[in-house]
Amino acid sequence: MMGRFDVLTIVGLVLGTFFILMSISLGGKLGMFWNLPSVFITVGGSFASLLISYDIQQIKGVMHTLKCAVTTETIDPSIVIELLCDLAKKARREGLLGLEDDIERLNDPFFQKGIRMMVDALDPELIRGILETDMEYTARRHELGQGIFRTWASLAPAYGMIGTLIGLIVMLAKLNDPSALGPAMAVALITTFYGSLMANLVFTPLANKLALRSSEELLIKEIILEGIISIQSGMNPRILDEKLNSFLSPKTAQQQQQAARAREEQANA
Questions:
Q1: Fewer CB within 10 Å, N or C, the chain?
Q2: In degrees rounded to 5, what are phi and psi of residue 236?
Q3: Distance separating alpha carbons of residues 232 and 228, to the nearest angstrom
Q4: What is the number of structural domains in the chain?
Q5: What CA–CA distance (Å, rounded) separates 142 from 216?
Q6: pTM metric for this prediction
């Protein structure tokens, strides 16, 4: 397992901000688009509604969830497949008990749990049930993190509209004072701008990235699950390699098979 810094998330946020600021500066002054009351309404108001929507522990987890969108602990599926095929070969030579020393080979609790249960000779259906339950609750935790950002993405434009209504009310109440019309109109329009910006540049893309991270992690878990059940059943390592490669894209699977053949030829040479 290795830590990976997702440069694209940062690049996307920076580029989006840059292009918006550039378009503003080409058409006017940046200062025209800064309005503190609008910030209070969109950012403060939407966050207040977020506090109502979730409990404190879930809100505290937002920063950790945000970190997962930028950096993530990932395992290359090809490495996992190669490891499982090696374990299948060892199991045929030494039996399942011989795999006890390999529990720590992959620094992943899900993998370790599965290997340990297999070595302990638990029923295959029981192992599958336990690991699938683990996967289900992992998916639920991931959906919670995504849900926070999707909820925030829906709230920000709504508070932008509330700010627009506030600005229009203030403007209509002060029609006899021309000096008050400008600030009121600024609040009316800029809050909508802020809300749309928060939703479409920040929160919705972050939720989508978290969904991608979740699918990547669950794919690894599914490969591990099928590999462990297949090893326990005594499946031929070559057949296991073919089976697990079906989880990968055709191009990646072909590269994996070519690498496996090259390793086998090298071992036989």
A1: C
A2: -60, 130
A3: 6
A4: 1
A5: 12
A6: 0.81
